[in-house]
């Protein structure tokens, strides 16, 4: 007999759920008593105002959530929490002063993005409205000087206003708004500019929080990616993006240092290759900067305008593209860096390099830092605490590397984000704060207490930002394996079964697909992915969901995809979890490209949903931005597009891997969705035009005021419900008994 499911999830509950912002660091006061972090509240979000505009009208970056941001304050000892934000405003990127008595953060309390300081003693706010701030990524938090008086922030360059910058103009010359002819001119041959780089353009400014001195400009009108105040408080080191790319497609950056006393500036290194320009760290004594240049570590110091650079071991960074900066020990004698399967220790005084390997089954995620951004050493000066993943089981946790020994401290069947600022060790005690999520709960903040002896670590939850979801009965998730039809290699994936599943129940199956992503790694991730694509919603309505590993190779991505994932469906059916006649496929962005590819190669799916995708590689290749960038050229030739050549060299390869040219083979009803301001919109519409012309069953929905995915709760709710209705029409969601 079929079993009755628990109460299905309400689409609005998921669409309006808050989330912890991805790139914004946790902020812990140096005394270890208070925690502050940023929460995104979708119910306060607003529609996009147009195109590739990366900032709202108030100057808030959309790269990390846009409007609707709140700061959550937590008393760590009691666990009591409260919102620091005032109603109707956005507040984000908190940073504690060295004394722990004040919290600096960005806010639009004054009507535009600016700086605000909250006093812990008086519980009052100080608004600093000039200059208007200009952070683009959430990690660009305000930086305090060690004396707690000054703050370094990114600000709107002098002579510009928000309308200039929101339109991403290449220069800030006010004469562009004159009555003279206005146009942009592009030339060829010419180097390709980096897409969206103008969003980084800002001034770097030193602000006196006492208001006794005017703001001091440290860098004017530069594409600043990250900045750090040295431990001695005399200098600021910053990276700025250049107008060129290094080999391997990483943008080139210059690393510069400026004196806060004399104002003198020195270029420490030019044209270093980093994807985000964040991979550098200042020694606590302010004498050295360690940085990574195309996977190699360097250390540079300076003295009266002279500089000395030490080139260190290759492969000193792991494969994570962001936040793999070296980490200094608090005495400035050594720094550490991640390497594949190991930690590298560099001793500048002795000029030695030591490789500290991990057991083969463990992979390092990042090195844990303390509240000052230095190496966290809870027990001794030899400690190195890392976040790790056990590759066979997917379990993750924290471990201690000491004297070449690997000692797990805490292990969990949860996902720890691969961002080092999502775990901070306390300077006041042997404890740390970190963020994780699990298949049956959203991201939460935890307090983990360690012990130097064999006593097990203990933890407590410091946040539950969506209490309304705490009582939900969630779907179960397990790993399933099969063989690749082309290579014969073992493949695996994460299989989600509806709440209340019992042996013998067969469910309709959704293949949630994203090319070249290991879906098996999502087993411990809430809903497999973030809202509005949380697969727990569909499982609560009776659907099983398979998220497979989907490796794809150069020259034959779609053929490889089909060979990897279609046998996974067979494995689910053979094990009695799903019906052959009730199959659907769903994907978003590159995943939608995979959906288009699959439904042109097989007719075994009874329904398909393709969101914000593309299907014609020739159209994608010619994407052209207002700033002159053509980002898909490199991406298709040598990146995620996997063509390995340009269209004139491999014309047939581009055609073979463009589902647009095979839409006549489609027999699966397709729901296509996009956003009014989605960069994929014209490509999604192109696929719909082809399907409609061929008389195929298809529907296109374009959400007004939205970008790459619906964000406003009303639109996101409709998006959930519309996909469910489409699936229920063609793939009914009631379980049957297969015995």
Number of strands: 42
Question: How helix-rich are the residues, as a percent range?
Answer: 10-25%
Tally of separate helices: 10
Strand content: 25-35%
Q: Distance between termini?
A: 9 Å
Unreliable stretches covering 5 or more consecutive residues: 1-5, 166-178, 318-323
| Largest sheet entry | 9 strands, mixed
What does this structure look like?
- 13% of the residues lie in helices and 35% in strands.
- Strands 34, 35, 36, 37, 38, 39, 40, 41 and 42 form a nine-stranded mixed β-sheet that branches.
- It contains ten helices and 42 strands.
- The chain is globular and about 70 Å long.
- It has 739 residues and is mainly beta.
Topology:
Layout: H1 11-15, E1 19-20, E2 27-28, E3 34-40, E4 69-75, E5 81-83, E6 91-96, E7 102-107, E8 114-119, E9 125-128, E10 143-144, E11 150-155, H2 162-166, E12 201-208, E13 216-229, E14 235-245, E15 251-259, E16 265-273, E17 280-282, E18 288-293, E19 296-303, E20 306-311, E21 327-328, E22 334-339, E23 342-347, E24 352-357, E25 362-367, E26 369-370, E27 384-390, E28 396-402, E29 405-412, E30 423-425, E31 431-438, E32 441-449, E33 458-461, E34 476-483, E35 490-497, E36 505-512, H3 536-540, E37 544-548, H4 557-574, E38 578-588, H5 590-601, E39 607-611, H6 617-621, H7 631-638, H8 651-656, E40 670-675, H9 681-693, E41 698-703, H10 713-730, E42 736-737
Parallel strand pairs: 26-30, 36-37, 36-38, 38-39, 39-40, 40-41
Antiparallel strand pairs: 1-3, 2-3, 3-4, 4-5, 6-7, 7-8, 8-9, 10-11, 11-12, 12-13, 13-14, 14-15, 15-16, 17-18, 18-19, 19-20, 21-22, 22-23, 23-24, 25-27, 27-28, 28-29, 30-31, 31-32, 32-33, 34-35, 35-37, 36-42
